[in-house]
Task: inverse folding
C-alpha cells in the first residue's frame, strides 16, 4: 500500500522551481517545465499551487522559513537578530552564493508577475510582505529604539542589495565599525 506524501511532493515541486531558476533562468520557468522537473503531472503541480504566482509565492515563503531557521540558529549561538541581519553575504561562501543566486532569480521572477485582475496584490507580493514583516518584527522586538531598529533594517537591506547587484562589498574593517556603531546605539 502506498501512502501519499503531499508535503514531500510540495517540496519536490519547490526544489524543481529553485533548480530551474538557478540553472536555466526565469524564461524556462513554466508550469509544464516545473512539473516535469519535479516528476509530477501538471495537474499534480496545480493541486499544490493554483498558479505560477502561487508557485513563486510558495518559494518565497520557503526562503523566508529558511531564513527564520538561520536567525534562530544565530540566536542559539549567542548572536543577536540585528547581528544576523547585518551580516554581509559572501559570494565566495558556497551557501551565501547559492542564496544570492536564488534571491537574484526570485527578484527576476517577481518582476515578471502581472497584477491580478481583481486589483489586489499578487500572491508573490503578499508573500514577500509577510517575510519582510517577520524580519522587521524580530528586529523591533530586539531593539528598544524603533528608529535604530529601522536603521538596522535599512542598512541590512542595502548590504544585501549590494551583494545581489554584484557591487563591490564595503571594506570589511569599515563595515565592522558600522555594525558595531549600529549595535551599540551610539548616536
Result:
Amino acid at each position: 500500500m502506498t501512502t501519499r506524501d503531499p508535503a514531500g511532493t510540495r517540496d519536490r515541486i519547490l526544489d524543481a522551481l529553485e533548480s530551474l531558476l538557478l540553472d536555466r533562468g526565469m524564461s524556462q520557468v513554466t508550469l509544464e517545465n516545473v512539473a516535469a522537473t519535479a516528476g509530477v503531472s501538471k495537474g499534480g503541480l496545480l493541486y499544490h499551487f493554483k498558479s505560477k504566482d502561487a508557485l513563486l509565492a510558495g518559494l518565497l515563503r520557503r526562503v523566508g522559513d529558511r531564513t527564520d531557521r538561520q536567525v534562530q540558529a544565530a540566536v542559539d549561538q549567542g548572536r543577536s537578530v540585528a547581528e544576523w541581519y547585518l551580516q554581509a553575504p559572501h559570494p565566495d561562501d558556497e551557501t551565501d552564493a547559492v542564496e544570492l543566486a536564488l534571491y537574484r532569480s526570485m527578484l527576476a521572477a517577481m518582476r515578471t508577475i502581472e497584477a491580478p485582475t481583481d486589483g489586489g496584490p499578487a500572491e508573490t507580493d503578499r508573500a514577500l510582505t509577510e517575510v519582510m514583516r517577520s524580519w522587521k518584527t524580530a528586529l523591533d522586538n530586539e531593539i528598544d529604539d524603533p528608529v535604530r531598529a529601522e536603521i538596522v533594517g535599512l542598512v541590512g537591506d542595502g548590504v544585501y542589495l549590494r551583494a545581489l547587484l554584484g557591487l563591490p562589498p564595503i571594506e570589511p574593517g569599515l563595515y565592522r565599525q558600522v555594525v558595531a556603531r549600529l549595535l551599540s546605539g551610539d548616536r
